[in-house]
């Protein structure tokens, strides 16, 4: 019973983060399942089965708060589902541990870009409103879906920073669209695992409590992303991407950093991340103060002209 309660809390926390930042549900949940000895394919299958419900609830909540661009959902979700099915069947017979450091380096680069871009400059404005093309979203969906299934998570860390970096839609709609399209990815990945490994080693009680925790958190996360300023949200997303992928690299066979080095790196990154968010909050408040002054000055000018 204690394990089920713990899994429910993990599902809640994971969906709260995923629904507000567009990533980390799969990574968080899969990590816990692997820690208790579940094999990689079964862990990823369990999480993706739970995600069918959590992503549906999250997508509906984001739709309710106007956080979804349905064109983006269609253009990235379908190829994402194809990639996820292929990744699930692939993982059922082969590990992808050697590819993790390479992908982490790519994601770390994107994360640094997003963190610096939003912290220093705020919301990208030059391309805002321009449509995202299929030739960009289709390969992104295929790669993101494949990585999500083989790594037990990754749809958000691949899709969110790439679309955020384009600056073409605001962060809350990036997150809402990624969360909504993840429903297709979760269904396809689950189908792939059922084909590859059947129901072997899948604990449906674990699936249920992960799902319950995620469903409860989904509307809270959707409300949160609707009201958090884009500049602050971008800094928060960037920090998650950087911290997550630095952790993967330091623990990989490529680096195998000692525990002390890992701790120092995590503390340093966390401190810089907090500083970036504080800076973004202050910058956002200054921007709002300037806007308020300009709005206050406009009626005075019109009165003087009259």
TrEMBL record:
GO terms for cellular component: plasma membrane. It comes from the Bacteria. It is found in: Cell membrane; Membrane. Its main location: membrane. InterPro entries: TM_pro_TauE-like (IPR002781), TSUP/Inactive_protease-like (IPR051598). Belongs to the 4-toluene sulfonate uptake permease (TSUP) (TC 2.A.102) family. PANTHER family: MEMBRANE TRANSPORTER PROTEIN MJ0441-RELATED (PTHR43701), MEMBRANE TRANSPORTER PROTEIN YTNM-RELATED (PTHR43701:SF12). This is Probable membrane transporter protein. It comes from Acrocarpospora phusangensis.
């Amino acid at each position: 019973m204690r394990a089920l309660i713990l899994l429910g809390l993990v599902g809640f926390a994971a969906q709260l983060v995923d629904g507000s930042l567009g990533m980390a549900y799969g990574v968080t949940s899969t990590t816990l399942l692997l820690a208790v000895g579940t094999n990689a394919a079964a862990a990823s299958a369990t999480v993706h089965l739970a995600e069918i419900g959590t992503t549906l609830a999250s997508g509906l909540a984001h739709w309710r708060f106007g956080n979804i661009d349905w064109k983006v959902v269609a253009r990235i979700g379908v190829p994402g589902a194809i990639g996820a099915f292929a990744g699930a069947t692939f993982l059922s017979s082969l590990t992808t541990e050697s590819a993790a450091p390479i992908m982490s380096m790519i994601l770390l680069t994107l994360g640094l870009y997003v963190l610096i871009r939003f912290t220093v400059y705020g919301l990208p404005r030059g391309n805002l409103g321009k449509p995202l093309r299929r030739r960009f979203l289709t390969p992104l969906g295929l790669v993101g879906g494949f990585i999500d299934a083989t790594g037990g998570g990754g749809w958000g860390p691949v899709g969110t920073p790439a679309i955020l970096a384009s600056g073409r839609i605001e962060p809350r709609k990036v997150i809402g669209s990624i969360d909504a399209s993840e429903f297709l990815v979760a269904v396809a990945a689950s189908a792939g695992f059922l084909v590859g490994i059947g129901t072997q080693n899948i604990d449906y009680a674990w699936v249920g409590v992960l799902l319950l925790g995620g469903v409860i958190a989904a509307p809270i996360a959707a409300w949160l992303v609707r009201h958090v300023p884009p500049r602050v949200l971008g800094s928060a997303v960037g920090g998650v991407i950087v911290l997550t992928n630095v952790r993967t690299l330091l623990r990989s066979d490529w680096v195998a950093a000692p525990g002390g080095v890992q701790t120092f790196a995590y503390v340093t990154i966390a401190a810089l991340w907090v500083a970036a968010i504080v800076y973004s909050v202050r910058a956002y408040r200054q921007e709002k103060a300037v806007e308020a002054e300009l709005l206050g000055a406009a009626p005075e000018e019109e009165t003087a002209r009259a």
